[in-house]
UniProtKB/TrEMBL annotation:
Active site: 461
Positions bound to FAD: 54, 117, 321, 327-330
Keyword Flavoprotein recorded: yes
SUPFAM superfamilies: FAD/NAD(P)-binding domain, FAD/NAD-linked reductases, dimerisation (C-terminal) domain
GO biological process terms held by the UniProt record: 2-oxoglutarate metabolic process
Species per Swiss-Prot/TrEMBL record: Hylemonella gracilis ATCC 19624
Enzyme Commission number(s) from the entry: 1.8.1.4
Annotated protein name in UniProt: Dihydrolipoyl dehydrogenase
Pfam families referenced in this protein's UniProt entry, alphabetically: Pyr_redox_2, Pyr_redox_dim
Co-factor note (free text): Binds 1 FAD per subunit.
Length: 483
């Protein structure tokens, strides 16, 4: 049929995956249309994810730090919370970043269409204009004709079916809205998102309970590291319920009443002023009429792709949360670049670009809690399960001059090396600034470094980063002195 707009590349979704793909494609000389139902670009990450959570976590970390300063010889008064101002700070941070994105889109001449996109065929997308805070459809429709498309429609929070519709039951978006600090808060799901939001609310004054089906919080991270986190965060929780399911909930005038059932059959109940559901995210694959373009979507709503991010339909690509785990912004960005490069290569007959592929060896994860926990590659348990024999270097921060000077020597840096190849296969850090340090371990894995490479790399003294060099020396057996 006839189209209102024509382009080389249509990008569906303006999150980290979508805007990265759109910008790279435009930089490579393609005509790009970016469709986003929200008024701002940035997707979950900038609007209701990574960035607002870190704006609040920064404030919480400063508050926690200050509360320990009396031991170091300086006493501050009791913090006085102005929740409207704090929310305003968070909104300002979001505004700065999303405003920056929209300026960058303009600069690159990327056409941003605000509306809800649904496929009408393998070369057409229908966009129904949206407006206002609730993304109401205005009824105005446009058809975009494209040569190639990149689906970056992301994911949304999973909702437990039995949770009552009530303002006291929220997902991460509701928790980030920060309308109140409850006395007693339940976090359903002990993963990164739940624990980050729990950290914020607990520092602001809430008492926490957490319920998790598995046998430990922060699944995926090395247990040695989580042990330290558990110890340092005990004070936030009244009740840590592991191997426990949340099975029911009712709204009552006294609070949200929630029922739990242990995997051993024990039943219990609690009443909460706020319940945060953080039990995972589900991809948006089933909401974009993918079938009209012939795109295969899995039962769970994921879209499978190859290493070039191509779906089963040759001119249609997909990236980010919608293609699978790990659902992380930095993964989405790299996938977006690959898709844009492959497309530009194919449209422009550039074989080098056309052969671009996603070939990351590893993708790092970070919990921006206090202390932070960051990890990449194999954990010790995973190495064992996969039959990879590893040599480990575990460096305690009680031997780090900088950590001691900071008054924060609870951390550990742990590196794992393959006994056969000697190459580094995994690493993790628990401690302040762990997230900012993990990149070095990622680089070491990508470059196939061994313990000597890392141990002989001169790290500045006194820094927390030195702990990475020291852990390598410990694994290599060459560590004779600790600073
Ligand atoms: P999204 O960011 O989900 O963007 C998809 C976009 O597509 C959305 O803007 C949506 O409105 C739009 N869209 C969807 N369907 C349509 C349609 N049919 N028409 C028009 N538009 C549509 N990751 C990290 O790496 N680090 C973190 O610290 C971190 N913290 C997080 C904290 C929280 C509370 C949450 C919820 C997530 C966090 N994440 C973090 C995960 C991160 O936000 C996601 O991995 C990332 O946003 C995925 O990017 P994406 O481009 O795939 O999709």
């Amino acid at each position: 049929g006839s189209a209102d707009v024509e382009c080389d590349v249509l990008v569906l979704g303006g999150g980290p995956g979508g805007y990265s793909a759109a910008f790279r494609a435009a930089d490579l000389g393609l005509k790009v249309v970016l469709v986003e139902r929200y008024a701002t670009l940035g997707g979950v990450c900038l609007n209701v994810g990574c960035i607002p959570s870190k704006a609040l976590l920064h404030v919480a970390a400063v508050m926690d730090e200050v509360s320990h300063m009396a031991d170091l010889g300086v006493e501050f008064g009791k913090p006085v919370l102005n929740i409207d101002k704090l929310r305003g700070h968070k909104e300002k941070v979001i505004g700065k970043l999303t405003g920056g994105l929209s300026a960058m889109a303009k600069m690159r001449k990327v056409t941003v269409l605000r509306g809800y996109g649904s496929f009408a065929g393998a070369n057409h997308l229908e966009v129904e204009e949206t407006s206002g805070a609730a993304q109401q459809k205005t009824g105005k429709k446009q058809v975009v004709a494209f040569k190639k498309a990149i689906i970056a429609a992301g994911s949304q929070a999973v909702r437990l079916p039995f949770m009552p519709e009530d303002p006291r039951v929220v997902d991460s978006t509701g928790a980030l809205a920060l309308t109140q600090v409850p006395k007693k808060m339940l976090i359903v799901g002990g993963g990164i998102i739940g624990l980050e939001m729990g950290t914020v609310y607990s520092t602001l004054g809430a008492r926490l309970d957490v319920v998790e089906m598995m046998d430990g919080l922060m699944q995926g991270a090395d247990r040695d590291l989580v042990k330290v986190w558990d110890k340092m965060n005990k004070h936030r929780f009244d009740n840590v319920m592991l191997k426990t399911k949340t099975v029911g909930a009712q709204a009552t005038p006294q609070g949200i009443k929630v029922q739990f059932e242990g995997l051993d059959g024990t039943k219990s109940e609690g009443v909460y002023d706020l319940v945060l559901q953080a039990v995972g995210r589900t991809p948006n694959g089933k909401k974009i009429s993918a079938e009209k373009a012939g795109i295969a979507v899995t039962d769970r709503g994921f879209i499978n792709v190859d290493v070039q991010m191509r779906t089963n339909v040759p001119n249609i690509f997909a990236i980010g949360d919608i293609v699978g785990q790990p659902m992380l912004a930095h993964k989405a960005v790299h996938e977006g670049h690959v898709a844009a490069e492959v497309i530009a290569g194919e449209l422009q007959g550039n074989p080098e670009l056309a052969s671009s592929a996603f070939d990351a060896r590893v993708i790092p994860s970070v919990a921006y809690t206090d202390p932070e926990v960051a990890w990449v590659g194999l954990t010790e348990d995973q190495a064992k399960a996969q039959g990879v024999k590893v040599k480990k270097g575990l460096f305690p921060w009680t031997a780090s001059g900088r950590a001691i000077a900071n008054g924060r020597d609870e951390g550990y840096t742990k590196l794992l090396f393959d006994e056969e190849t000697h190459r580094i296969v995994g690493g993790g850090i628990v401690g302040t600034h762990a997230g900012d340090m993990i990149g070095e371990i990622v680089l070491a894995i990508e470059m196939g470094a061994d313990a000597v490479d890392i141990g002989k790399t001169i790290h500045p003294h006194p820094t927390l980063g030195e702990s990475i060099g020291m852990a390598a020396e410990i694994a290599h057996g060459s560590c004779t002195d600790v600073p």
